[in-house]
Known about the structure:
This protein is an alpha+beta fold. 35% of the residues lie in helices and 18% in strands.
Amino acid sequence: MVDERFESPAEYHAAIERIRDAAAAYYSGPDLAMDDADYDVLMRRVAATEAAHPEWKPEDSPTEVVAAGAGVVGDVVHSEPMLSLDNVFDEETLRRWAARLDKLLGRPAAGYTVEPKIDGLAIAARYESGRLVQVATRGDGRAGEDVTGQARRAAGLPEKLTDPVTIEVRGEVFMTEADFEIANGMRTATGEPPFAHPRSAAAGTLRAQDRTYDAPMSFLAYGVRGLGDGPHSAAMAELNRLGVASTAGMPVCATIEEILAAVRELNEHRATLGYGIDGAVIKADQPADRDQAGSSSRAPRWGIAYKFPPDTRTTRLKAIEVQIGRTGVITPVAVLEPVQISGVIVTSATLHNFDDLVRRNVRPGDTVFVRRAGDVIPEITGAKLDERPADAQPFEPPVTCPRCGGEIDRTQKRWRCTTGRACGAREALSYYASRDCMDIEGLGGKIIDMLIAAGRVTDPADLYDLDAPTLMTFDRMGEVSAAKLVNAIQASKAQPLGRVLTGLGVRMTGRSMSRRLAAHFGSMEALLAATPLDLQAVEAVGPERAVTIAAELAELRPVIDRLTARGVNMAEPDFRPRAASDDSSPSGSGSASGSADGVRLPLQKEDGSPMTVVVTGSVPGLTRNEGNEAVERLGGRSSGSVSKKTDLVVVGEGAGSKAAKAEELGIEIMPAETFAELLSTLGA
Ligand code: IVH
């Protein structure tokens, strides 16, 4: 990636000032002035500008000095400067760094460690005869602030070592996710605003002058002086033995390929560590290599940070919506200004529960920190209080259930509508029975209301237990209509999987997405076994949708099992598993109605991939949904809008602008009658 340079000295100097301000906030207190990703981009643009215009660069450019020249000071002078690390952001640059180090040494370095880059605050801790005597922050690298009192409470930085050695330990004070939860609980209990983010919480707690509460903190060492001159990995193990938590046990790699594998592994497991990391640190393991490579004024040449894409970013909280789950659980959900977090556009995030929402003190209009860790649903960790709009109003939690108006049970953290599963049952059952879903004729709103009121049904599976005598006990249900309704309900058991899925109302899916899922996986069993990554193989399923679908299916599991037990079909008719090579088909959509036996369906292209077909206007004898289903049975992929990518438009009576657009773009048009004939000829 080429970083965009600044065009003028004025723009360049303004950027330097912004970096200094952000760094001052970062190093000195709980407020973060800029999110890490923006900071890194700005720093890279400054470096790129300096490479092109070295004459603009001041001696104290943030690219040259520790802490970006944030002007942080303290009175504890470090035994030797606490340096920073240079950053790389991709594998190619990491390879070049390792090659440069080998060249500098005149031979390959004798082993590298790969450690997590902990997102906390650097400290130096001095032990004399095994006793912790002083802890200082990094400050400007030369001298830092005394934080001995607070740091004594960090887990992993013991008061007394197992041996009476005199050493200086360097490492990171941070908050684990569990520490952060406890810290915010304590802080808000004392009436203070919550911390927005674990890093700022650690900074605020470590530097707190008056200790109104004792929030937990943790420590992990990544360096030590005074333990002899063995390899770094051995020194870390020795620290562990002395009782100090350290990066011991991390892999020692011999080659760049091993380093890259270890970095990838760390990135993949990042979400499971229980604390925030923002990268990997790669270091020469042998002191001889380190001595020979040396350091610049800012950073060592024997180590480098490989920055991971940030898992936390800031964005604007547009609104807070209230979501009511199938079991009546009521949760606040954040609607966000779209923001990209590690390659994924995030538009909504969970706010956990109403207590948490109040505790985190977030309001619509706030700039909030959003964290997305691996496959976990994005969450809001807190708000930037210094950027709160003057007119931001606290969110008012609902007084009654927004769906059914029922009472809310607030005795647990997770609020519930006291109506439980019956809340929303009318909506869910009507949708399940509707023509585009299970198509159960005669099961209208009135009878559904009566069934719910009588406690006969709360979810779709209950429908299949109904018999005629039971139905006849209801108003205006005679023998004939009761028998007809039971038949219609029983007949719906044969509907294809795509319709069952639609009827279940999986969030973030509609009819066509449900059909696509059914076509791709073929059976409910396969779909339930799919991981979010598997789900992403389906067209138009991105990471956010994949996680939601997986979570929804897990929640629906009991209903699905009950439907299966009652004989509801859970397979897609004519499903043929895709051959492995189909995965690389240009469309990648994995149409199930397929050419595994070499026969091409009418709406498949020569390479077997589906034609993109838009049905507009009415097709004789079919609803719009049935028309779309038919397209897919014929090997095509139905779409709602005409674009250059459309292969065919089926035009029926009442077609409007879509037909005109198809003509304008020169797309093939098929009259609806021809389409209907094609269907009946093929018996599709
Ligand atoms: S080694 C000479 N190892 O990252 C510099 N630093 O961006 C030695 N950090 O100042 C630093 N985890 O505060 C090292 N495993 C690790 C680290 C680590 C976090 C921090 C440290 C450093 C900053 C540089």
